[in-house]
């Protein structure tokens, strides 16, 4: 039993790789390092530096390492940027998934865990999202993830690939000080960068219909997320039937002000966030229900908001 993690040199992927190691499962990383970091791959883990679009190279890697399943995390993950760069987004996320599926069929690899996104839901009419909530993505990124799910389901029917797709919102925290979220667009890195540079973090809007006026979102710890990716892989490898889609959600969410308060406490920097205008289209509250995932793939919110913030701060990049 050996699993490949595409995008395994990235923030989430590197945590999934470590979770596989802790479970005693052999793993190989495939990453083109367009946003990943070579030093995020643990010593002793085979590393294949190639583009997912290079189908022959991916096929060769699957065969060479005796891969029996893939956790597919590689892709272009910036929803806002995807609006300006839709063709790049579709090439990386849709064509890349087609290439991976072709390679898996050619190499006889029959198990796939797809790291999808709650961006597939767009702005749902309900503030608690379940797996039956209608999908209505609002960006090329969200669309590309939904198309990826369709492609995988079609390949499952045609070629017998066993699969499941995991949807989630905001991934935060760190399992080790060596692995930081370096995204230039995510809330936690933006707050950390501001505090590190002596600037005051900013909240976009404080007049939402929520208890403290700031919008509420799902924030899940990256280690909890990685645990469920590996659990899903083990279930597929063991022949268990899984749902086509699972939400990895908290069920209640956290407000932006709660996040800011936690940062002030964790860093010892007492600050009052600047208040800016609302961002267009930002709903009051979107939270995912993780009941099905808790039942089937060891999903649990094992980390508090304090854990999330403290671990992210401890892993912050230092020049």
From TrEMBL:
EC number, as in UniProt: 5.1.3.2
Protein's UniProt keywords contain Isomerase: yes
Functional pathway: Carbohydrate metabolism; galactose metabolism
MF GO annotations: UDP-glucose 4-epimerase activity
Names of required cofactors: NAD(+)
Organism domain of life: Bacteria
GO biological process, one term: galactose catabolic process via UDP-galactose, Leloir pathway
Catalytic activity: UDP-alpha-D-glucose = UDP-alpha-D-galactose
Alphabetized UniProt keyword annotations: Carbohydrate metabolism, Isomerase, NAD
InterPro entries: Epimerase_deHydtase, NAD(P)-bd_dom_sf, UDP_G4E
Ranges where the NAD-dependent epimerase/dehydratase domain occurs: 4-249
Family: Belongs to the NAD(P)-dependent epimerase/dehydratase family.
The name this protein goes by in its record: UDP-glucose 4-epimerase
């Amino acid at each position: 039993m050996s699993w490949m993690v595409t995008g395994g040199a990235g923030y989430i992927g590197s945590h999934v790789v470590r979770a596989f190691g802790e479970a005693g499962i052999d793993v190989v990383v495939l990453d083109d390092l367009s946003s990943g970091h070579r030093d995020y791959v643990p010593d002793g883990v085979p590393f294949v530096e190639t583009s997912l679009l290079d189908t022959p190279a991916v096929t060769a890697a699957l065969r060479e390492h005796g891969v029996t399943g893939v956790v597919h995390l590689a892709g272009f993950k910036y929803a806002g940027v995807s609006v300006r760069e839709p063709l790049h987004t579709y090439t990386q996320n849709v064509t890349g998934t087609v290439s991976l599926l072709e390679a898996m069929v050619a190499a006889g690899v029959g198990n796939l865990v797809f790291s999808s996104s709650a961006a597939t839901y767009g702005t749902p009419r309900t503030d608690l999202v379940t797996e039956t909530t209608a999908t209505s993505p609002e960006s090329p990124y969200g669309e590309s993830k939904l198309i990826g799910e369709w492609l995988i389901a079609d390949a499952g029917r045609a070629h017998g690939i066993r699969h499941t797709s995991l949807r989630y919102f905001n991934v935060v925290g760190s399992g080790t000080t060596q692995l930081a979220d370096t995204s230039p667009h995510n809330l936690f890195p933006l707050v950390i960068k501001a505090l590190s540079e002596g600037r005051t973090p900013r909240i976009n809007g404080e007049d939402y219909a929520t208890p403290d006026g700031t919008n509420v979102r799902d924030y899940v710890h990256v280690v909890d997320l990685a645990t469920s990716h590996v659990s899903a892989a083990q279930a597929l490898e063991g022949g268990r039937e899984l749902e086509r889609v699972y939400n990895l959600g908290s069920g209640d969410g956290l407000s932006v002000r709660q996040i800011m308060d936690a940062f002030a406490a964790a860093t010892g920097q007492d600050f009052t966030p600047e208040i800016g205008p609302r961002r267009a289209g930002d709903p009051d509250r979107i939270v995912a229900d993780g009941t099905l995932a808790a039942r089937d793939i060891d999903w649990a919110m094992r980390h508090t908001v304090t854990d999330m913030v403290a671990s992210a701060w401890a892993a912050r990049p230092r020049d």
